[in-house]
Write a structure and sequence with these properties.
CATH architecture of chain B: Orthogonal Bundle
CATH topology of the largest domain in chain A: Tetracycline Repressor, domain 2
Distance between the termini of chain A: 51 Å
Number of domains of chain B: 1
Strand content of chain A: under 5%
CATH class of the largest domain in chain A: Mainly Alpha
Number of strands of chain A: 0
Largest sheet of chain A: none
Largest sheet of chain B: none
CATH superfamily of the largest domain in chain A: Tetracycline Repressor, domain 2
Shape of chain B: elongated
CATH topology of chain B: Tetracycline Repressor, domain 2
Order of helices and strands of chain B: HHHHHHHHHHHH
Structural class of chain A: mainly alpha
Strand content of chain B: under 5%
Radius of gyration of chain A: 20 Å
Helix content of chain B: over 70%
Largest interface: A-B, 54 and 50 residues
Helix content of chain A: 55-70%
Oligomer: heterodimer
Number of strands of chain B: 0
Chain lengths: ~230, ~220
């Protein structure tokens, strides 16, 4: 998919990038609240307060816009995994922190109004082949990031030789997305907590060190978190 | 809600209504809720506009009936005789295998028949969320009951948490269905469901040793 979109960031000025970013953000919000079918260039133009020619300057058509929306959220996901707090994401401690940061992120965004990757997937998955493929490309980037992290764990003998990085990455992303979908439905955190705990416990089943293979409990005792909360 | 509404109609009326719901469910599975109009449902079901409005207030009402029908569909799938009470490792593996067997016919085409509704309706109103959550509750409960029986029987260790394991099975299924559909690839569903069942198995109680008091006469001699 080599498209010469006018969205090429590098050719834009700082102000141009800001405008383009705002359009993408507004478009993501509209897709989330009204569905992709309700999104057209006219409603978007009004919601983002830009002129038709400005919009056309940044996005040749709706498909280019959808690609930008998905690319933006893909970067949010990839950046989340690359944040310094997660180290190189190649130890069990890193993955334990991955659980904590996932739960913290979920509490911060709440259960509606944020075009998370799974929420976009829910809106875009059944529209058309090009859109579905755009969505798939973002998922593959995420899967490959985890696959490489898990491969490093294998190379460093943190994981046993028969651990399959591709499969483990698919298991982890699937658990994450399913847990998020359930949490958004229930409007509570526990489904996601169970799902990401499973993901890391499953990874632990392939630990070289028997002590690391022991599954951690999904439910922490109540009140334990209170001590670390700021007053 | 659905019982009250359904009881207003004659047997023939209920059959027509069920057929419309069935048509709507199929269209929504293919094109999504937003991509399915009442007009398309009317045309595909070959009923008149006045018939549709006789049975359903509006599209939201029809969507809620589809959610209820799909929740029943999930329930029926899980209560098939071949899965017993989903309370053995073999039954859970059979469950995973049966889902994987549907990968081309169902999951690559539109994801999960239930989950893809939930995923699309994340920004819907609280009543629709309650409908969807109630469907998940039933689903999780079915699996939890089987896992609880396994723990009580001693197939699973005391530290196995049936609720955590049940949520794991459902969440893995839901996420993998999304990925398998988006990627048009059977691998996520296969990998995730087998992993989830393998995870349950990792909580299996150690097999009873020979020489344990229940099996060995020597054991008794000690007491």
């Amino acid at each position: 998919m080599v498209h010469a979109d006018r969205q090429d960031d590098r050719r834009l000025t700082a102000k141009g990038r800001a405008t383009r970013d705002r359009i993408v953000q507004v478009a993501a919000g509209l897709i989330l609240s009204d569905g992709l079918s309700a999104l057209n260039m006219d409603t978007l133009r009004k919601a983002a307060s830009v002129s038709g020619s400005q919009l056309a300057h940044y996005f040749t058509d709706k498909q280019a816009l959808i690609r930008a929306v998905v690319a933006r959220q893909t970067n949010v996901v990839l950046d989340f995994h690359r944040q310094p707090k997660l180290g190189a994401l190649d130890t069990f401690d890193d993955f334990e922190r991955w659980i904590d940061l996932n739960m913290r992120y979920l509490r911060r965004i709440g259960y509606s109004g944020t075009p998370t990757y799974h929420a976009l997937a829910g809106q875009l998955g059944k529209s058309d082949t090009a859109t579905r493929e755009t969505l798939a490309a973002g998922y593959w980037q995420w899967i490959e990031l985890l696959e490489q992290a898990i491969q490093r764990m294998k190379d460093q003998r943190v994981l046993v030789a028969h651990a399959d990085p591709r499969k483990l990455a698919l298991v982890i992303v699937s658990a994450h997305q399913g847990g998020a979908a359930l949490s958004f439905t229930y409007r509570t955190a526990w489904p996601h907590a169970d799902a990401v705990r499973f993901a890391v416990n499953y990874l632990r089943m392939f630990a070289e060190d028997p002590a690391e293979r022991v599954p951690r409990a999904a439910r922490r005792p109540r009140g334990r978190r209170k001590a670390v909360q700021p007053a | 809600m659905s019982h009250d509404a359904a009881s207003r109609f004659t047997r023939k009326g209920r059959a027509t209504r069920a057929r419309i719901v069935d048509v709507a469910a199929k269209l929504m599975f293919q094109r999504g809720v937003a991509g399915t109009s009442i007009d398309e449902v009317r045309n595909t079901a070959a009923v008149s506009g006045s018939q549709i409005s006789h049975y359903f207030h509006d599209k939201r009402d029809l969507t809620r009936q589809v959610i209820a029908a799909r929740s029943n569909h999930v329930q029926e799938f899980h209560t098939q005789p071949r899965f017993g009470s989903l309370d053995t490792f073999e039954a859970l593996q059979a469950w995973a295998d049966a889902n994987i067997a549907d990968v081309d016919a169902v999951y690559r085409r539109g994801g999960c028949v239930y989950g893809s509704l939930a995923a699309e309706l994340t920004e819907a109103d609280p009543e629709i969320h309650d409908d969807l959550a109630a469907g998940y509750d039933r689903w999780i409960e079915l699996l939890r009951a089987g896992l609880t029986a396994m723990r009580a029987r001693g197939d699973l260790r005391p530290d196995a948490d049936p609720r955590h394991l049940a949520v794991t099975l459902v969440a893995s299924h839901q996420g993998a269905a999304m990925l398998t559909h988006a990627l048009d690839d059977p691998e996520p569903l296969r990998a995730a469901l087998n992993a989830a069942v393998e995870y349950v198995r990792s909580f299996a109680a150690a097999p009873k040793r020979r020489g344990s008091p229940t099996r060995s006469p020597q054991g008794k001699a000690k007491s």
